[in-house]
Each structure stands twice: as C-alpha cells, then as structure tokens.
Specification:
By secondary structure, this protein is mainly α. The chain has 14 helices and no strands.
Length: 240
Amino acid sequence: MKADKNELIEGAKAGIPIVMGFIPVGIAYAIIAKNAGFTTIETVFMSLSVFAGASQMMAAGMYGGGAAMAAIVVATFIINLRHIIMSTCVFNSMEELRPWQKLLCGFFITDESFAVVTSRSSVKTGFRYMLALGTVTYLSWVAGSAIGALTVEFLPETVTASLGIALYAMFIGLLFPGIRGNVPLIILVVCTALLNTLLSRFLPSHHALIISTLSGAAAGTFFVEPDGNKNKSESGKERE
C-alpha cells in the first residue's frame, strides 16, 4: 500500500515541470480557438476530449482560416501519428498492463509525458505512476484552456504573444537531465534544433517540426546509445 502511494506521489511530482508549461500554453491555445470563433464551452471541451496541444492549435487555426472539415481531420491525423510510436515506447518501458489501463495511459501520453517516462533509464514505470503523471498534466492543460477562454478579452496583446515560449522552456527543462553527459545525444539535439530553424524559413512551423524530429530520431538510431544499454554493457564488462 505504501509503495502504491509513493508511486502516485512520484508521478505527480514528475508532472510539476509540465504543469508550469501547460498552463500558459493552454491559455495560448484558448486564445487561438476564441479568435477562430469557438465559444468558451467549445474551447474547453476540445481540451477535455482531445488533450493534444499541437493538433488543437492547428485545428483551431485551420477552422478560423476557413479550411474544410475533411482537411482539418486529415491534418490532425497526420500530426498525431507520432503518438502511435510514443505509446509503443512508453508501454515497452512500463509494467504489464490490462487493456483498459493501456487505453487510459494512451490518452494521457503527450510529448512531455513521453519525455518524462522514457528518461527514467531502465526503471519500469508502474500504472499508478503514469496515472498520477497523466492526471496532473491533463488537469493543468484543461485549466489553462479554461483560464485563456475566460480571460482572453482582458489579456494585453504582448502577454498573449509571449505565452508560447513557455513550451520551449519546459522542453529544455525536461530534456536537460536526460542528455547531460551524453555527448552524441547533445550533438543530435543541437543539430535537430538547427534543422528545425532552417526548415522553418521555408515551410510551415508544424511541418518543419515534424520533419526535423523524424530526421533527428532516424539519425539517432545509428549513433546514440541509450543510457540503460550503456550501463548494462559497463556492468557486463565489470563482471568479466
């Protein structure tokens, strides 16, 4: 019982850095949705039912721009294809789950929770840890959306324009512990960021992000060694 409680506490603590980024970014999403013509209820309901910031922002922006519903569905489907890979990686790093537990955890998986879970080296993640992590981040995203929807008319333009930077600051905070001391991974991260910056000059930002991320991931499979495998190989050499 005590172990279960500790697992819940650890999961909730791991979600705190994500909360600090999700609330302002949720507000930024709500501003986009409201400007696109969404009502307050529609804006918050989308966060309650979808829980995918990038696709929500894109869908709201496309709707506001007059895009056809079929185009919005196809675009969000493509941008969310990465969740299939992320869910597979997360489930492989977790203890054995029942089908309903996989469905619930799958809903909670975001880019940020994926980074947290997969950076736990070789430690197996339990269902309660993922449940606490997912619940904390989900509620913060919904709260940010609600705050933005209710206060969009009162926020100064300079404030709304700067909210998006919180997401990048959060990613840096999540990424740093995992890459510290791993020189090949540091080089890969820097090169991926530079590629994204370069592509953003010629392509829409979400296209540049997807291409640079997939390119970095593909390159990383050839020369970046996970810490867990490195530790295993080192322990094996010590035994010999």
